[in-house]
DNA sequence: GCATGTCAAGTTGTG
DNA sequence: CACAACTTGACATGC
C-alpha cells in the first residue's frame, strides 16, 4: 500500500502561485512572459520541494496540480516554456524533480479537471480537451509521472454513444498522453460497472474511487470493483490506483459528496489493506490527513487477521 | 494592511 | 431559467 497526497499542503510550507488570463491581458506580451516565467519557476521549485516534503513524511505518491504552469493552454495568453526568459532553468528544475522522484520511488500522477471532456459532442470542447491533455503529457514526460487520470465526462442522454465518442478520440492522442491515460468513476454519471468493461476493451487502466462508488452505487461490491479495477492494470505493469475520501457531513442525511478534512477509518475498504496499490487520499486536511490515515492503517495491518 | 470578489474552460441537477 | 456543485485557494482590487 502506497498512500498519495493530492496537490496541496495544509501545514507544510509548500506554496504554488497562479495568475489569471484577465490580469495577463492587461500587460504587454513581454511583461506577461516575465510574470509567467517567475511564476513557473517558483512552481517548478515548489514541486521539487513538495516531493522532498512527501518523501520526508513517508508519503509515496503525489498528484501534481494541473495549473503548475498557469494559463499555458489559454487561447489568448497561452505560451511554451521556450517563450519564457527562465524556460531553460524551469526545464532543468523539472529534470531534477524527475530524478528525485525516481530515486525516492515517489509515484507521480495528474488529474486534469472537469473541463477535459473527451465524450463531448461539441468538437470545440474536445479540441480544447485534447490540447489540455497534451499539456499534461508534456508535464508528465518532464517529471516522470505515469498516470493522467480523467473522468468519462457527460452522458448527453446516451451513455453508450458518449463512450463511443471517447473511444474514437483515443487515436488522436499523442503516445505521451495515451500511455498514461486512465478513467475514473464519478459520482453523477459513470459507475465502475459502466467503465470497467469499456476500459478492458480499449486497454485503459481504471482508477477506482470508492467514495464516488458509494455516492453512485451500481450493484458491485467494493471488493468486486477493486478486483476488477486491479485486472485493468495488469497489462501495464503499473500498480492499481484507488481514491478514498470521507463525506464532510456523514453518510446519513445531507450531501455525502463534499470531502471531509480527514478520512474516517471506517470508510477505508478492508479489502485494500496490504494490497499492492496506490491510494490517493482526497481530504481537505491534505498531508495531515494522509499521515493520520497511514498511522491508523499501520495499526490495522498489525492486528490479527480475522 | 486587510477583507472581499474573482477566476478559461463543462455538465448536471437543483431551487 | 439561473445558479450552485464538483474543489479551491491565491490573486487582484478596493477600502
Describe this structure in words.
With 306 residues, the chain is an alpha/beta fold. It has two domains: 1-104, Alpha-Beta Barrel (TIM Barrel); 185-306, Divalent-metal-dependent TIM barrel enzymes (TIM Barrel). The chain is 42% helix and 12% strand. It has ten helices and eight strands. It has helices at 21-25, 29-57, 87-103, 123-143, 159-169, 175-178, 192-201, 210-215, 222-231, 286-302; strands at 2-6, 61-64, 107-110, 147-151, 181-184, 206-209, 240-244, 277-281. It has an eight-stranded parallel β-barrel with strand order 1-2-3-4-5-6-7-8, surrounded by five helices. Helix 2 (29-57) runs parallel beside helix 3. The chain is globular and about 55 Å long. It starts with a strand and ends with a helix. The model has no long low-confidence stretch (mean pLDDT 92).
Architecture per CATH nomenclature, i.e. the level-2 architecture of the largest domain: Alpha-Beta Barrel
The first-to-last residue Cα distance is 19 Å
**What class do helices, strands and sheet pairing give?**
alpha/beta
What overall geometry do the principal axes of the alpha carbons give? Answer: globular
Strand content: 5-15%
How would you describe the oligomerization state of the chains in this entry? Answer: single chain
The main β sheet shows up as: 8 strands, parallel, barrel
Amino acid at each position: 500500500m502506497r498512500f498519495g497526497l493530492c496537490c496541496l499542503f495544509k501545514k507544510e510550507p509548500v506554496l504554488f502561485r497562479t495568475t489569471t488570463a484577465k490580469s495577463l491581458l492587461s500587460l504587454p506580451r513581454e511583461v506577461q512572459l516575465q510574470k509567467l516565467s517567475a511564476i513557473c519557476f517558483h512552481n517548478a521549485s515548489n514541486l521539487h520541494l513538495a516531493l522532498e516534503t512527501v518523501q520526508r513524511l513517508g508519503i509515496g505518491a503525489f498528484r501534481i496540480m494541473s495549473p503548475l504552469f498557469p494559463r499555458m493552454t489559454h487561447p489568448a495568453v497561452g505560451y511554451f516554456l521556450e517563450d519564457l526568459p527562465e524556460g531553460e532553468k524551469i526545464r532543468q528544475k523539472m529534470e531534477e524533480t524527475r530524478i528525485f522522484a525516481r530515486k525516492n520511488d515517489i509515484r507521480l500522477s495528474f488529474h486534469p479537471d472537469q473541463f477535459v471532456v473527451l465524450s463531448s459532442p461539441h468538437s470545440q470542447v474536445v479540441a480544447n480537451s485534447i490540447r489540455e491533455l497534451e499539456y499534461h503529457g508534456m508535464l508528465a514526460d518532464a517529471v516522470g509521472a505515469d498516470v493522467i487520470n480523467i473522468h468519462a465526462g457527460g452522458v448527453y442522454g446516451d451513455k453508450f454513444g458518449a463512450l463511443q465518442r471517447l473511444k474514437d478520440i483515443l487515436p488522436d492522442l499523442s503516445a505521451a498522453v495515451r500511455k498514461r491515460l486512465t478513467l475514473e468513476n464519478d459520482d453523477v454519471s459513470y459507475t465502475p460497472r459502466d467503465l470497467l468493461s469499456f476500459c478492458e476493451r480499449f486497454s485503459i487502466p481504471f482508477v477506482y474511487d470508492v467514495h464516488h462508488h458509494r455516492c453512485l452505487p451500481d450493484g458491485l461490491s467494493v471488493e468486486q470493483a477493486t478486483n476488477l479495477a486491479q485486472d485493468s492494470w495488469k497489462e501495464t505493469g503499473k500498480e492499481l490506483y484507488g481514491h478514498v475520501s470521507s463525506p464532510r457531513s456523514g453518510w446519513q442525511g445531507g450531501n455525502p459528496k463534499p470531502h471531509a478534512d480527514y478520512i474516517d477509518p471506517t470508510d477505508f475498504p478492508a479489502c485494500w489493506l496490504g494490497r499492492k496499490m496506490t491510494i490517493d487520499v482526497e481530504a481537505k486536511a491534505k498531508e495531515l490527513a494522509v499521515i493520520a490515515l497511514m498511522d491508523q492503517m499501520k495499526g490495522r495491518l498489525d492486528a490479527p487477521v480475522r
